[in-house]
Each structure stands twice: as structure tokens, then as C-alpha cells.
Amino acid sequence: EAKENGRGTYRFYRTALTDAANTRLALEAKLRRGLEREEMVLHFQPLIGIGDRKLVGVEALLRWQDPTDGLVPPDRFIPLAEETGLIVPLGDWVLTTACRQLKAWRDDGIMIDMMAVNLSPRQFQLPDIAERIRDVLAETGLPPHCLEIEITESALMEQAEATLTKLAALKALGIRLAIDDFGTGYSSLAYLKRFPIDKLKVDKSFIADIPSNLADMEITAAIIGLAQNLNLEVLAEGVETTAQLDFLRGKGCDTAQGYLFARPSSAEDLIRTLVEGRAAGWTGPIGSGWHR
Ligand code: C2E
Ligand code: MG
Ligand code: MG
Ligand code: MG
């Protein structure tokens, strides 16, 4: 019986593997087609100053408007794009579209100071990534200081010596650099000190259970303190409650991002909310001179 059982198991796995591979191939082809057919869209989420509630910038977040499945979140297709290399053309599209959008807003008198764009590990590893970003800035006419590139902590620490050179090349463009999802990777503090970065973004997993989880509060406070000591800006991700905001303000955190202020939304909806000053739970000023 054991034999039969084994064979059955084998057959089961073979089918399951084939199905998984087919699903993956189908999704990959669909994603490639989606990029060609311009089904990708960017949503934008405000980054807010904790002290004055001003808009300090927006983060571009990728979505896929699939004709049959609707709006697909990035977690459902970015890992595959990263594996297959499709992230390279996809990432170029994101960079160009995000920079073009901020330039267009600024030309319209909507003076948002900064556009944050996520860079995947594979994009960061491209030998010519600095040239690519330089070309996008030249092509779109966005001033370099208006672009912030977010790189995850794990991507940076993978080959820290090579990273140092790469970051220096990016920084030389005049752009801003942020470490995304900080606290979830394994940072070497010795390298952190040497990286030419501007900002740490505290991962939202540490914010979620404030104020009930004391360990998360200690970790968050420690990251804020670390940023202050290294003269870096610090932003808390995933701020959903006023209790979280009060805690962060008490610890001296500079900026925040989260549903408490605004969810990511389309360009049109973002501008409508900003113009009408109706961002959820947020009635403060938008930023001096943000609109003519
Ligand atoms: P991320 O860069 O850490 O982006 C922040 C994520 O937190 C976004 O998820 C955002 O919608 C979500 N978020 C913001 N505020 C809150 C909140 O108050 N509560 C909760 N629960 N979540 C909040 P999203 O848009 O689903 O993106 C997920 C991840 O996908 C991003 O995490 C980023 O790693 C990746 N991603 C998104 N767009 C791009 C892109 O253009 N390129 C690359 N390489 N990765 C991207
Ligand atoms: Mg990010
Ligand atoms: Mg993040
Ligand atoms: Mg994240």
C-alpha cells in the first residue's frame, strides 16, 4: 500500500507542479501583454509632515488594471516580474510615468515637492541604473531634488560594498534616497552610517500594533532615535490611528504615511482631495505655496 500511496503522491505533485508552472507562465504572458497594452497605472499616496501636517510629497504605487480581474495590487505581480526580469521595463515605465506626472503637476502650479518611487532589488542591481534615472530626469524635465528613490533594506545590504558605490552614483544625480521597509532586513549599522541616504522609512509592521505592543513601540522609538543620531529623516509607514500618530510625534518622528491621512489614489482623485482639502481625517494645511 505504501508503494501505491507513494505513486499517488508523486502523481499528485506532478500535476500540482505542472499546474503551478502553467499558471505562472500564463500570468507572465498576461503581465507582458498588460505592459504592452498600457494596463499599468500609478496610484499616489501623500507623505505628511507630523509637526505641521503639510504634504511633503507623494509615493507612486503601481497597480495593474487587468481587463478581466480589475485593479491588481503589486504584491500579486511584482514578485513574478522580479523573477522574470519583466521588472526592468516595468520599472522604467514607473520611473518615467511618475517623473512625468510630478513635472506636469508642477507645470500646472500644483507644487508638490517630491515624488517617491520604489526601486526593486533587480533594478538596483542594473549596472546602468544611475544612467537610466539620469535619462528619465532629462527626458521628463523633473528637477533631480524632486525625485526620491526608495530601496528596501534587504536589497541594500545584499552586497554592501557594491551598494556603497551604486548609492554614490545615484546620489551624484542630485536625487534623494530612502531606505524602505526599514527594520525588516538585517542592517549593518557600520554600513548604514556610510550610505549616502536621506531617509529611513519604518516598516508598517512595527506601527500596526502601537500602542498595545510594547516591543514594537521600543523598536520604533529606537529606529527614530537611530535616524536622528545619523542625521536622517524618518517616516513611519502604515499610520492608521491618532494613537499611533501621537506616539510618533512624542518620539520626534518627522513624517508619516497611512490611511489616517489618505489612501493611495489615482492622480485625478489625489488632486481632487488636495484641492478640496478633504483627505480623510486631515484638515490641516497642504503645504505653503503648494498651489498658486
Ligand atoms: P511599500 O513601498 O512599502 O509601500 C507601502 C505600502 O503600504 C503600499 O502598499 C500602501 O498602499 C500600503 N499602505 C499605506 N498606508 C497604509 C496603512 O495605513 N495601512 C496599511 N495596512 N497599508 C498601508 P501597496 O500599494 O499594495 O504596495 C505594496 C508594495 O509593493 C510596496 O510596499 C512596494 O514594495 C511594492 N511596490 C509598489 N509599487 C511598486 C513599484 O512601482 N515598483 C516596485 N519595485 N515595487 C512597488
Ligand atoms: Mg515604498
Ligand atoms: Mg515600505
Ligand atoms: Mg512595505
TrEMBL record:
Residues 24-278 form the EAL domain. This is EAL domain-containing protein. It comes from Dongia sedimenti. The lineage of its organism: Bacteria, Pseudomonadati, Pseudomonadota, Alphaproteobacteria, Rhodospirillales.
